[in-house]
Specification:
Elements lengths: L5 E2 L3 H6 L3 E5 L2 E6 L3 H10 L1 E5 L4 E6 L23 E7 L5 E11 L2 E6 L4 H11 L4 E4 L4 E7 L3 H9 L11 E6 L2 E6 L8 E7 L3 H9 L4 E3 L2 H10 L33 H10 L4 E7 L10 E4 L2 E12 L4 E8 L9 E6 L2 E8 L12
Parallel strand pairs: 1-3, 4-14
Antiparallel strand pairs: 2-3, 4-10, 5-8, 5-9, 6-7, 7-8, 10-13, 11-12, 12-13, 15-18, 15-20, 16-17, 16-19, 17-18, 19-20
Amino acid sequence: MDEQLQATPICGRHRALQALMAPFGGWDMPIQYEGIIAEHNWCRTQASLFDICHMGEFIFQGDFEADGLEDVFTFSVNTIPVGRSRYGFLLNEQGGIIDDLIVFRLAADKVMIVVNAATAPKDFAAIQGRLQGGEFTDITAATGKLDLQGPLSRYVMVEVFGEEVATIPYFKFITINILGVEAIVSRTGYTGELGYEIFIPSEKVCELWDLLLQDERVKPAGLGARDVLRLEVGYSLYGSDIDEETTPLEAGLEGFINFDKSFIGKDALLRLKEKGVSRKKVAFEVTGRRSPRHHYDICSGGKIIGNVTSGVFSPILGRGIGIGFINPELTATGTPLTINHERVTMEATVCELPFFKGGSVRA
């Protein structure tokens, strides 16, 4: 089975560090090094380095309107200023989420689209099928991606790459020379902390990994810590919290939908808005340190009313947290719930997102 997994260029480094490796989205990825809680705490207080080379990257160049790109996503590509990025969705005709993604405006007629690893081939085919022209290229294999995240990440980046990095606002990026090649440095991330995503040619990504880890404030972190970090700040995980059977309206993500423009899936979402959703995302805190898990039942009054899609023990809150989908009438803050799985029972209470509000993401 392992031989069928794809490996990032840094896979050898992970194994040398004795990382626990496991399949993720078709890739052989590090889950943890010294431990999930230790890596989580380091990211919340110092700076953590993540190998994100498994993500997909596409380039589109052309006329956004005439070539059809403007109608592909739930947001306007045309109105993204050059040097900025925007988050949103690629939907199917039923309004289900094919993927959540970020578009980076590289030039007046050029964007980079960053998508999830497991859905990258499907995304490329879906986007390509909606275009009427322009040049559309998959650059995933040629692109390396590292995320440096944590409240000290700016200090590390400035020391290594210069003062220009310190001026990058949230969801903006610059193109600079790193290790003799052109690289994109973006103030984005998936942890709720101040951080940077670095896109660099894949042949240079191991050298960049080694360079950043020379700083004593930087330690590697795996996908286990990343999952805890993202859930503490309420970010959705594709394949667990959102998928093609889930609409942004059910997932509480309507804020990333621009209903003033056309996009595939819009008509279905408008009908759903008028009719009302039959289930809705809910966030809850567990009474105690147990972790709710994916597919556990969410119950009220002795009846199953939904299921957990993501759940972890939050080190920073000292209790179990989770999100899932339930009947809309039971999603009010403070509503008591019970989480059940076989012989496991946890009392929980509906709460607001994010669970953790003290992150440095906009510092």
